[in-house]
Design a protein that fits this description.
- By secondary structure, this protein is mainly β.
- 8% of the residues lie in helices and 44% in strands.
- It has 1 helix and 11 strands; from the N terminus they run H-E-E-E-E-E-E-E-E-E-E-E.
- A 6-stranded mixed beta sheet has the order 1-3-10-5-6-7, with no helix packed on it. A 5-stranded antiparallel beta sheet has the order 2-11-4-9-8, with no helix packed on it.
- The longest helix has 13 residues, at 4-16.
- It is globular.
- Bound molecules: calcium ion (2 copies).
- One calcium ion binds next to loops.
């Protein structure tokens, strides 16, 4: 017989298809879609948490074309399993992680020309930092979405604590 908590979790997964978030979210919520995006000021970091199944959307206003928009997402703990999407201006897709689970190396992301993802590693096997470099071919509003992924068999939902900084080069 399963303990009641596991039974409740199993029922939740069966009914909703997704484990219910066990951890509190950050103070930037709700920021789950472009209309609710958290504005980022270049050079000013924000600290946040991505809970599995709950997208975190950030917006940067790029005043002029011809530079590079850089997003730096640094690991601050918990399950380091994010997928990134960048669009802009408008719905134009510039970067899209296509992996559904934590195995980032299994599938190459979709990238517009000139877009780069660099990962910095320390002692562990997970990246300490992710740097997305986006050539800004047009001025306007660019959006970054961070969506925490899971594993095939994670019973409790994953979360990732991160520090995010945008800058314009
Ligand atoms: Ca969040
Ligand atoms: Ca969110």
């Amino acid at each position: 017989m399963l303990p009641p908590r596991l039974l409740l979790l199993a029922a939740t997964i069966l009914l909703t298809g997704c484990p219910r978030s066990a951890r509190p979210d950050d103070a930037l919520e709700p920021n789950d879609d472009p209309a609710q995006a958290t504005p980022l000021t270049p050079g000013q970091p924000v600290e946040a948490r991505a809970n599995q199944g709950n997208p975190d959307v950030f917006a940067v206003e790029v005043p002029a074309a011809g530079g590079t928009l850089v997003f730096l997402a640094e690991d601050r703990g918990l399950e380091n399993c994010p997928a990134f999407t960048v669009t802009g201006p408008g719905p134009q897709a510039l970067f899209e992680d296509v992996h559904s689970f934590c195995n980032r190396v299994a599938e190459e992301p979709r990238k517009a020309p000139g877009v780069e993802l660099h990962m910095r590693f320390g002692a562990g096997s997970d990246a300490e930092a992710y740097e997305l470099r986006i050539p800004t071919t047009q001025p306007g509003r660019y959006l970054l979405t961070i969506l925490e992924q899971g594993r095939v068999d994670n019973a409790a939902p994953f979360s990732w604590d991160y520090r995010l900084t945008a800058r314009l080069e």
